[in-house]
Amino acid sequence: MIKYVSAALLSFASLNTFAQTENSHRGHTRIYFNQLNLPKNTYGLSDSQHQLTINQRHTWLHSESDLHMEVAYEFFVSQFDANNDIFRNALSQNTPYDYRLRDINPILTQTNSDESPLTQIKQNLDRLYIVKNWAHNKLSVGRQIINFGSGRMVSPEDVLAPFGLMVFETEQRFGIDAIRYQHAFNAIQELDIGHIAGSEGYLDRSATYAQFKSYSWSALMMQFKKHNMLGVDIQNECFEWNCWIEGAYVEMQEDYKYFRWSMGAEKLFFWKGKDFVFLSWNTRNESNTSYR
User: Fold this and answer.
1) CB atoms within 10 A of CB 3
2) What is the pLDDT of residue 3?
3) What CA–CA distances, in Å, run from 127 to 58, 139, 140, 160, 179?
4) Which residues of the chain carry a pLDDT beneath 70?
5) How far apart, in whole angstroms, are the C-alpha atoms of residue 177 and residue 146?
6) Helix H or strand E encompassing 70
7) Angle at the Cα of 218 (from 143 to 242), degrees rounded to 5?
8) How far apart are CA 168 and CA 33, in angstroms?
9) Which residue, of 43, 150, 191, 236, is most buried by count of CB atoms within 10 Å of its CB?
10) What is the pLDDT of residue 292?
11) 111-128, pLDDT tens digit by residue?
């Protein structure tokens, strides 16, 4: 048995010798500090709260002619100056890992939760997926990025892994466990379907979607945690401004229905050799309950 396994590994190594492969590693370390000022006696919170975070992220990539694999791991060292339990919980539980089949323990260690400031060391296996390309098709399996909508601050269609209000590191979106198939009809039109696994793979914790995308618009159908959603997203240039309007209609299990929409515009200005962005948007959310 051992010799057959060795022969198979040797054959695999020989094939990779002649294949065009590329391996790379990249990483970064970020330190950021934020302060939230609150009115006195608002929900019993103190006047201001502080958060200091050190984030280190490493990404490994392996690519061949029609195959791509990515692994990303990161850890955070955070200190919260929080005197109230509500605010402390909001700060320490601001990473939405709902749509993961199984996961590593996010908290490596932390100080006594009754102490202030609270210090935590967290970890996140954020990417672990493989992509196969052929003809006009693409199949992705594993922990990856899937997001919908073009709204800048709030996206009505983004219900899988939205950023929390207390999350300030928004360059990297949280990875979710999914099987995703994409078919390109031409250069501007694509069919995108997928299944996202919730905890332990239970259907009432999972999501399934189908989306058709064109140059300036997209239409989305999704069932997430047994809730049904229809979404439309339109984005185009209007008088040299980048404009968008996005809406999502949701029917929940409890016969509760609601509509969310967001619209806005942004423009990039150049002044004295520097870039400036003007952004304006308006959002309405009719939901009065938790929808994720």
Assistant:
1) 7
2) 35
3) 10, 16, 12, 15, 13
4) 1-20, 36-49, 82-96, 113-116, 164-169, 288-292
5) 9
6) strand 67-81
7) 100
8) 10
9) 150
10) 37
11) 876 666 778 888 899 999
Here the tokens at position 236 are: 């185009």
At position 129, the amino acid (one-letter code) is: Y
**Which tokens in the block code for residue 248?**
């999502």
Mean pLDDT estimate for the chain: 80
In the numeric block, the tokens 């200005």 are attached to: 269
CA distance 131 to 135: 13
pLDDT tens for 191-248 read 999 999 998 889 889 999 999 999 999 999 999 998 999 999 999 988 888 899 999 9
Which residues are registered as beta bridge partners of 77?
54, 121
36 Cβ contact partners less than 8 Å away, ≥ 6 residues apart: 48, 49, 50, 51
Q: Which two tokens stand for residue 270?
A: 């150049």
Helix residue ranges per DSSP H, 130-285: none
Q: Which residues contact 224 (CB under 8 A, 6 or more apart)?
A: 159, 160, 196, 206, 207, 209, 292
pTM of the model: 0.79
How does DSSP assign 161-214, residue by residue? SPPPTT----SSPPPEEEEEEEEESSSS-EEEEEEE--GGG-GGG-EEEEEEE-
- What is the structure's pLDDT at 11? 32
Q: How far apart are CA 257 and CA 179, in angstroms?
A: 28
Q: What would the two tokens of residue 136 be? A: 């006009």
